[in-house]
Fold this sequence. Notes:
The chain has helices spanning 6-17, 51-59, 66-79, 90-97, 106-120, 137-143, 235-257, 272-285, 307-326, 339-375, 394-406, 411-425, 431-445, and strands at residues 25-28, 35-38, 84-86, 122-128, 148-152, 157-162, 168-178, 184-192, 195-199, 205-210, 218-222, 261-263, 300-302, 382-384. By secondary structure, it is α+β, with helices and mostly antiparallel strands.
Amino acid sequence: MPNASASRFRFVAHALRGDGPFRPKVEAVGVGTDVQLSGESALVRYPRESALKFARRNDVAFYASPLMRACARFVGYLGAKPPGRELPGDLYKLIADNVDGKGSAIDVFWSQFMVDAKARGTMLLQVDMPASPGENRAQQIAERRVPVWISIAPESVTDYAIGDDGKFDFVEYGGTFDMPDKSRVPCAWRFDREAWSAVDDKKKVLDQGVHPLKECPVLIFTEAGDFPSFGPFASIADIARRLFNAESELDEILRAQTFSLLTMQVPDAATDTEKLGAAKVVGETIGTANLMVHTGSTPAFIAPPDGPARVYLDRIKGLHQLIAEVGLDVGTVNERESGLAMRMRFAAINAELAGFAGRMEDLERRAWDLSRRWLSMQGAPSVQWTRDYNLADIEQELRILAEMQAAGMPAAVIAEQQRRIVAVQFGGLEQTRVDEINQAIDERENEPRPTTPPTQPVGA
């Protein structure tokens, strides 16, 4: 079926990268100061706004991509505890060291893949094999003739069909094909459970073949459900578009109303012609380098009200807060929140991290299994992604520890809270070092406690 969600995925991708309509292009017209908008823009034109004025507003507009910041922050938490892998064999290690054929190690490749996947809620991973696998193991290693992992954005998919097992029966997506003369031409790639092909825009078959996988080599990653699926961060793209417009509209208000208006009183008996003449003279001659001598009432400046700008500032602040809430930004925690509210906030992001890591672990296992089949090997690598990321507010945890100690809680309870603080504060250390710190806590917990001698009765 045609990919009806392609336009939505494309919009989210533009909001993530800050290009396309979020980076409108304005070009000069002729030799004057006139400009015109070239291409699409995420800014909404006012009903009575001229094309020139709208183009100038696009020329000074800026976009900081809050979606990218939210996704990068989320993936940064995941990257603090990289997954553990056991790679049996040199060929698997060769894949892990250069997983995409471009020199990227597997964790580097996953970091960018996860940013794209978190923004959209969906990404695709193709496990491909070079046309010639090599004559022997030495040639395979020397020339890296092993499977490559390729990330595919869901907006590039043009047609697909999903089987009962949730995998692609076939998928078609737009890409490029390397011609024998080293040039690249646009093409449509098609992969199914048995074969593949590349067709140019004239429906000419550029190349085709079969594969031994008995499964489509394009794997699906979604945060929930079948392909296509949108994740919770995708809504940040819509909020970011409104924020983009609000900041541009605020700039327009400031440009139009910041400058004060000079007023000059004229006699009531003056005719309209005299009033216009006085206004013309003053408007042409008064400036910072001029001195005006007057009689009667003093000329004054009327400053425009700041109400419209203040309303926009409050609205922009609210949009930033909404993005922080949707993006699970724990940096927005404030001291006025109760301990329970803070724990619930951190528990929510820990749950999101654990769920996302579980789906990434499943994707990586399937990718290794396809790589094993391409190489006709028996044992596949094992992989384990972390589930407990222990994100918490360290100051709040220290306050809880102090209150436990003040309340005379048992040593075992205090030691458990100390272990939690160690996990939060030193989560980035090597596991051996963390084990040493926890062992020191255990040793202190097991130390004999001094006993208080019984009180002797008076007169004994």
